[in-house]
Design goal:
CATH class of chain B: Alpha Beta
CATH architecture of chain B: Roll
Largest sheet of chain B: 5 strands, mixed
Number of helices of chain A: 28
Strand order of the largest sheet of chain B: 2-1-5-3-4
Shape of chain A: elongated
Strand order of the largest sheet of chain A: 2-1-5-3-4
CATH class of the largest domain in chain A: Mainly Alpha
Structural class of chain A: alpha+beta
Number of strands of chain A: 11
Distance between the termini of chain A: 62 Å
Shape of chain B: globular
Radius of gyration of chain A: 30 Å
Radius of gyration of chain B: 11 Å
Structural class of chain B: alpha+beta
Number of domains of chain B: 1
Distance between the termini of chain B: 34 Å
CATH superfamily of chain B: Beta-grasp domain
Strand content of chain A: 5-15%
Oligomer: heterodimer
CATH superfamily of the largest domain in chain A: Aldehyde Ferredoxin Oxidoreductase Protein, subunit A, domain 3
Chain lengths: 664, 66
């Protein structure tokens, strides 16, 4: 066990992890050491000095504060030597002399055998809720919410905790972190503007998240460093990053736009920032002083808000692996009010059509729109905004373009339908779904179209193999879209659910649901409304809205089976080159899933067999999902389901009355 | 031989740890929950916990992002 070392605690040999703090090590070994300033979720402060221990290491003996002493090698520690006891007693007397009525101080004094202090005097503060200058509040402000609003002012006996210049700082949003960690009650939260039913419940839920972000984020998703762009690297490694209009899942140049590149090269990308004040995840990122190379603001230095993962993924999908391009594309999309996801997906579609000869420079006004054409893409973006040139057509979206080109007799209509990555008129977002049937359904059956925020099941299905049956896929496609809908209903961000994960999540029965955080949201809901919530009630809350949305979608001509069908590129390889790039994987599937020996078969034959299989599987999954959701075979909510949910109002029933089928 | 996620097998080697197994699979994902024959393994023990030959490992990627 390479990372474990042996130390001696009060004469007893114990094994501890290298790098552990001495205080944690001795407590784990059963020793009791007092502290006032230590809080389990904050970095050690070493300010109260009460955790002094005697350490013998490499032939030298010294007194150290155990809370911030890092165990790097063998040592012997005594937690209650005569020297230690003498020092602690003096410290306890000093504390008691200054703050004689603070319960935490009195407890420390009792423990040290001190009942009276020699140090009572003009600085003695008799208040039981006095600040004892431990520094926890300032540390919590900095570590939990990345602010420095509460801090120390004054020197010596004048030292005290204050906001800057003793004025209420407008940056303080009342997160209550400082009050939460205060050991004496010196900081109190006195307002509750939203009038929650149980503020303590909300505070406890929020503090849990704050503590997790302060202690776990740096070893988990690194949202504070890189925001959502952290996952681009993961997608590239798992062959899930869309490249060249979703043909491939990785690219050797993708590393040029990893989150680490932006963090290191475009300040202040690496710093934590919040999309709203007080959020301790602080995943929003900016690039300041960024000089634009094109467009109406060419030459100006601007602040770019982003990039998020979807923007980076969209640039990979266009084959544009230049970080400067990513930021300029991000900036102008934001400035023009254009969504980076739809913009990049439609441009990637146009690029593939250009490379396939479906369109030429004659159509594009001279733009050579091959994959990786960064300058041409920006020009097209400016054209969309100016309302002139080929960019205007591109701005109509994938569905409009493919229908127009089919109508004009350009290329093979089936090819255009296969590679046009849209459903219900919305462009796909930036994940390759080919190897996950559940993700294909999660995308395409989403009511709003193939957005990623309804059911993101790639890992559960493809890597974890947690959904091997249609029924399990259907269950996931019931639970997750409703859970994600619930965030929208409550106006809550989902990132605090699964972009940081409790340290003990691995012990949960269903760790992929991150149950600890689901319960945390329920606790927050109950604290705010007074209404207890559980999984069943949450699902029903969402299902009412979800089914209403589906009825309205049907009214708009999109809530049907036909609208839930994906372009084949979302399901499998469309071109021979695409198949051959992952031939080993596909050939294996032919052998293992279909019992076909691919030896000697042409790529076209193999593709046809694979396609027939995958499309059949997709259709079967739809049937089971519809049943689980209480919808008929055409994907329309049944009257029985509307009644069950209590939304069988006449005006809603009227929306779907003509789609009802006789009961089987 | 070790079975992973009921779907693939990995050749067992002497001294194989959880971290070694994940590395062999190319899985350097930050959030993976691991069980060996149904027993949880804490992430801090990935480097030291041996994976016995013939064991069934579940390595659940907790999906962040999305």
């Amino acid at each position: 066990m390479a990372d474990k070392i042996s130390i001696v605690v009060n004469g007893k040999a114990v094994e501890v992890r290298k790098g552990v703090r001495l205080l944690d090590a001795v407590r784990e070994a059963g020793a009791s050491v007092p502290t006032l300033c230590r809080h389990k979720d904050l970095m050690p402060l070493g300010s109260c000095r009460l955790c002094l221990c005697e350490v013998e290491c490499e032939g030298r003996t010294e007194l150290v504060t155990a809370c911030d002493y890092v165990v790097e090698g063998p040592l012997a520690v005594v937690t209650d030597s005569a020297e230690v006891v003498r020092h602690r007693k003096t410290l306890a007397e000093l504390y008691l002399g200054r703050w004689p009525n603070v319960p935490a101080v009195k407890a420390i004094a009792r423990r040290a055998g001190v009942s009276e202090s020699r140090f009572v005097g003009e600085f003695t503060d008799p208040e039981p809720k006095s600040c004892i200058l431990c520094g926890r509040c300032a540390a919590a402000c900095e570590e939990f919410v990345l602010e420095c609003i509460v801090g120390f002012a004054g020197r010596g006996m004048e030292r005290h905790v204050a906001m800057p210049f003793h004025q209420v700082d407008p940056h303080c949003i009342g997160c209550t972190s400082c009050a939460h960690v205060c050991p004496t009650g010196a900081i109190e939260i006195v307002d509750d503007l939203n009038r929650p039913v149980d503020p303590r419940k909300i505070q406890s839920a929020g503090m849990r998240v704050n503590a997790e972000l302060a202690t776990l984020d740096k070893s988990q998703c690194r949202m504070r460093e890189m925001g959502t762009l952290n996952i681009l690297q993961v997608m590239d490694k798992y062959d899930l990053l869309p490249v060249h209009n979703f043909q491939y899942g990785c690219h050797p140049d993708a590393k040029k736009i990893y989150g680490t590149v932006f963090r290191d090269q475009y300040p202040p990308q690496g710093l934590a920032d919040g999309c709203w004040p007080g959020c301790s995840m602080a995943c929003a990122k900016t690039a300041d002083g960024f000089e634009l190379k094109t467009g109406p603001y060419k030459g100006q230095r601007v602040t770019v808000d982003g990039p998020e993962y979807e923007t980076g993924g969209g640039c990979a999908n266009m084959g544009c692996f230049d970080p400067h391009f990513v930021l300029e594309f991000n900036f102008y999309c934001d400035t023009y009010g254009i969504d980076t996801i739809s913009a990049s997906t439609v441009v990637a579609f146009v690029m593939e059509a250009f490379e396939a000869g479906i369109i030429t420079t004659h159509d594009t006004g001279g733009l050579v729109l091959k994959f990786g054409a960064c300058d041409e893409t920006l020009e097209m973006l400016h054209q969309m905004a100016r309302g002139k040139g080929f960019g205007v057509l591109v701005g109509q979206g994938v569905r409009w373009l493919k229908e127009r080109w089919i109508e004009e007799g350009r290329g093979d209509p089936q090819f255009l339908r296969d590679i046009g990555m849209e459903a219900k008129g919305l462009e796909y977002s930036q994940y390759v779904s080919k190897e996950s049937l559940a993700q294909q359904c999660g995308y395409t059956m989403a009511i709003k179209g193939p957005q990623h925020d309804e059911a993101w099941l790639i890992f559960m299905d493809m890597v974890n193999n947690q959904l091997p049956t249609f029924e399990l896929k259907a269950e996931a496609l019931y639970y997750f879209p409703l859970w994600r809908t619930w965030f929208g209903l409550m106006g809550l961000c989902k990132l605090l659910w699964n972009d940081v994960v409790p340290a003990d999540n691995y012990k949960e029965k269903e760790p992929h649901k991150i149950p600890g955080h689901v319960r945390n949201y329920f606790k927050y809901f109950e604290g705010m409304t007074g209404i207890p919530l559980d999984e069943g009630k949450m699902l029903d809350q969402s299902a009412r809205v979800y089914n209403l949305q589906r009825c309205m979608s049907y009214m708009l001509g999109k809530g049907t089976r036909e609208a839930d069908l994906p372009p084949y590129r979302a399901v499998g390889p469309v071109t021979a080159k695409e198949y051959e790039s992952r031939a080993e994987r596909y050939d294996k599937q032919l052998r293992e899933l279909l019992g076909i020996d691919p030896t000697g078969m042409s790529t076209a034959e193999k593709m046809a067999r694979l396609r027939a299989h995958r499309e059949e599987q997709y259709g079967k999954t739809m049937d089971v999902v519809y049943r689980r959701r209480g919808w008929n075979r055409n994907g329309v909510p049944t009257l029985a389901r509307l009644k069950e949910l209590g939304i069988d109002l006449p005006e809603i029933v009227a929306l779907v009355a003509d789609a009802q089928e006789p009961e089987a | 031989m070790i079975t992973v996620n009921d779907s693939q097998t990995v050749e067992w080697t002497a001294g194989l740890t959880v971290a070694g197994l994940l590395k062999a699979l190319g899985w350097d994902y930050a959030l993976i929950a691991v069980t060996i024959d149904g027993q949880f393994v804490a992430p801090e023990d990935f480097d030291s916990r041996p994976v016995p030959d013939g064991s069934a490992v579940q390595a659940i990627h907790i999906a962040h992002g999305g």
